[in-house]
Design a protein that fits this description.
With 256 residues, the protein is an alpha/beta fold. The chain has one domain: Glycoside hydrolase/deacetylase (TIM Barrel, Alpha-Beta Barrel), CATH 3.20.20. Helix content is 38%, strand content 14%. Strand 3, helix 4 and strand 4 form a beta-alpha-beta unit. Bound molecules: zinc ion. Zinc ion binds next to strand 1.
Amino acid sequence: MVPRPAQYLLRFDDLCPTVARAQWQRFLPLIEEFGIRPILAVVPDNQDYELKHAEPDPEFWARMRSMEAAGATIALHGFRHVCNSKGRSLVPLHRHSEFAGVREETQREWIQAGLNILRGHGLKPRVWVAPRHGFDRSTLKALRKEGIGVLSDGLARVPFTRGGVTWIPQQLWRPVDKSKGLWTICVHSNTAHGSHVDQLLAFVRQHVAQFTSVDRVLAELKPTKLDLAERLYEAFALWRAKASRTRKRTGRRSKR
Ligand SMILES: [Zn+2]
């Protein structure tokens, strides 16, 4: 059997009416021209001042609806994006989280409220994206109870099932050439420089046939539990990601 070449998913984080509009809109031609079907991670009720880059865009929700109609997948990106909890996450890359460590009932209320807000704007949220990768077993339970069976997170190279939820891993923050596996490239448009846009555009142009969508991933790759080899890879990748974050943190400190 000829091995399947690598596949890529694009995910845009921190979308809300106060998104840095000009920065975000630089990515739209790329999505339209190449027919990309990204994950749009939308904060339902943003209260995080770091995501308040502009006055609320009156066109924001209509834009999300038209992008969903064109094939994008809407993800619930937390509830208010305020990360005050210090609970340990299942993907422990950050110290603070909105959800990890919070009581299950509260998490469920937030998820329910967030889904209602997005649905109230005419969207059909189908995927969970935790702010700062922060979520725990209680989050998985709450998601299942609210009918959300897919999340975008984790560092394995293939989608898989765990805790009753399908995980579509998200491992990259910039495009990287890979020989096999499924790779989600996460873009924070608020802080992306012009060079990020150019780099992504060049990559998409070169690999357009390898860009997939959440629907295709679920239908074609039929996720199951990870085998031992992939679990070991995942543990190693997590260790490496944590080490690089620690290096960046201590590097910043010593530069001060
Ligand atoms: Zn976020």
